[in-house]
């Protein structure tokens, strides 16, 4: 009887604990922080939950607006979206803003109200501002107030039109800049870099760009992905950034001359190229300080490099600091000379990773350099597809032509 009574009391206590509304016991700042992970539309809708939530959304330090959240059949989406956004700016508390994120990807609507929204946001001292507008029928102006924000630490502009050159750029706190699908004038990029004394990272993604020149004394990380010239698609790129530590270059189009100058701080680089200039394909000269290098060349780029290496006048640079080298799309037939040149001119290389491309192999191997290369190597890693029929021959060829500290450190994996 006594045990039943204790069991009943225990169940009642457990039920009382389960019925406790722990969320309601949280403070308003914590609840506002939780709401910041929602879209602003969803955060506003929480005002229907209880009286306490009626105005809580207005204290959220984040605004996330997405045009697609307002898509519904039979309604004027643009009018509904603009009305909602205007209401958010009108009724939210006059507090500083941590983050603003806007996505408006609709060709049939007019995004010109965005200019006024961005001007309002800039005055709320945000740390993060991101605008993604995909519309080829309209152009909006990014207000000067965005480019003179003293609080902004990260700026993301994804626009399908040219940015109007601001009169002044003064972004003392900006550390990261991302431009996507933007028409870049030489003057605006120069202004953005010179007006951002603390900038450390820049990403240019699918931008139309005429000069291809980057000069900076503070950048540490740089990513160029798919940028091209508007008329010829051949973009000559010159990067002169003494402070740069990590570099990524991805060429989706044909690329002209690729030059690196004064890159004394560079530690790591990833270079993915579809084409190389016939005039000067040996772009590696400016990367000699790297400790880690990943190289991906298309078939045509590989052939251009191979032809260059066969010239007696070609001087392959010395990579005295290189410790790790990865070559993707590699084949014994086409790329052995390139690998051999690295092994001859990278005396401190410890790890070599080769990602094999079976499609490039010919029926007969044509290896023109047959030396015991790679005395400093600790590990050679060969990565290939599971159904790669030439994998065993590939490993055999590596053992024949490469000399490493221990043969069992030749690793092959699919």
Structural class: alpha/beta
Taking all residues together, what is the mean pLDDT? 80
Number of continuous helical runs: 9
Strand content: 15-25%
Contiguous low-pLDDT stretches (5 residues minimum) are 363-370
Give the N-terminus to C-terminus distance in angstroms.
67 Å
- Percentage of residues assigned to helices: 10-25%
Strand order of the largest sheet: 1-2-3-4-5-7-10-12-14-15-16-17-18-19
Number of beta-strand segments: 19
Please compute the radius of gyration using only Cα atoms.
Answer: 29 Å
What is the H/E order?
A: HHHEHEHEEEEHEEEEEEEEEHEHEEHE
For the largest beta-sheet, the strand count, sense and barrel status come to:
14 strands, parallel
Structural shape: elongated
Organism: Rhynchospora breviuscula
InterPro entries: F-box-like_dom_sf, F-box_AtFBL13-like, F-box_dom, F-box_SCFL_complex_component, LRR_dom_sf, LRR_FXL15/At3g58940/PEG3-like
Domain F-box: 20-70
Protein name: F-box domain-containing protein
Short précis:
Residues 20-70 form the F-box domain. The protein is an alpha/beta fold.
Structural notes for this entry:
The protein is an alpha/beta fold. It contains 9 helices and 19 strands. It has helices spanning 2-18, 28-35, 40-45, 77-91, 114-122, 186-194, 299-309, 332-345, 391-401; strands at 62-66, 99-105, 128-134, 154-159, 176-180, 183-184, 201-205, 208-209, 213-215, 221-225, 235-240, 246-250, 255-261, 268-273, 292-297, 324-330, 351-356, 379-383, 410-413. The strands form 3 sheets. A 14-stranded parallel β-sheet has the order 1-2-3-4-5-7-10-12-14-15-16-17-18-19. It has a 3-stranded parallel β-sheet with strand order 9-11-13. A two-stranded parallel ribbon has the order 6-8. Strand 18, helix 9 (391-401) and strand 19 form a beta-alpha-beta unit. The model is unreliable at 363-370 (pLDDT under 50).
């Amino acid at each position: 009887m006594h045990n039943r009574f204790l069991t009943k009391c225990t169940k009642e206590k457990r039920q009382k604990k389960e019925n406790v509304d722990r969320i309601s016991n949280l403070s308003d700042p914590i609840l506002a922080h939780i709401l910041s992970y929602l879209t602003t539309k969803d955060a506003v809708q929480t005002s229907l939950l209880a009286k306490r939530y009626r105005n809580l959304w207005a204290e959220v330090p984040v605004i996330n607006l997405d045009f697609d959240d307002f898509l519904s059949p039979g309604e004027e989406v643009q009018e509904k979206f603009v009305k909602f956004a205007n209401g958010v700016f009108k009724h939210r508390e006059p507090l500083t803003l941590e983050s603003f994120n806007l996505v408006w990807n609709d060709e049939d609507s007019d995004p010109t109200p965005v200019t006024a929204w961005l001007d309002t946001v800039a005055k709320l001292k945000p740390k993060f501002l991101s605008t993604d507008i995909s519309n080829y029928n309209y152009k909006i102006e990014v207000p000067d107030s965005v480019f003179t924000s003293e609080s902004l630490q990260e700026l993301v502009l994804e626009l399908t039109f040219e940015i109007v050159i601001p009169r002044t750029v003064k972004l003392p706190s900006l550390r990261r800049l991302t431009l996507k699908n933007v028409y870049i004038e030489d003057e605006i990029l120069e202004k953005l870099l010179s007006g951002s004394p603390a900038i450390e990272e820049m990403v240019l993604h699918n931008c139309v760009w005429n000069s291809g020149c980057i000069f900076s004394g503070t950048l540490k990380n740089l990513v160029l992905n798919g940028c091209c010239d508007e008329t010829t698609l051949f973009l000559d790129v010159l990067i002169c950034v003494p402070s740069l530590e990590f570099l990524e270059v991805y060429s989706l189009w044909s690329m002209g001359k690729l030059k690196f100058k004064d890159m004394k701080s560079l530690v790591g680089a990833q270079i993915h190229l579809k084409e190389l200039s016939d005039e000067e394909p040996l772009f590696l000269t400016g990367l000699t300080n790297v400790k880690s290098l990943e190289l991906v060349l298309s078939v045509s780029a590989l052939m251009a490099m191979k032809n260059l290496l066969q010239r007696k006048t070609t001087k392959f640079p010395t990579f005295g600091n290189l410790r790790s080298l990865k070559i993707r799309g590699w084949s014994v037939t086409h790329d052995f000379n390139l690998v051999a040149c690295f092994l001859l001119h990278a005396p401190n290389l410890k790890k070599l990773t080769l990602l094999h491309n079976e499609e490039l192999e010919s029926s007969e191997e044509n290896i023109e350099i047959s030396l015991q290369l790679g005395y400093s190597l600790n590990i050679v890693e060969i990565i290939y597809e599971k159904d790669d029929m030439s994998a065993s021959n590939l490993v055999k060829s590596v053992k024949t032509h490469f000399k490493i500290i221990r043969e069992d450190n030749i690793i092959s994996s699919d």
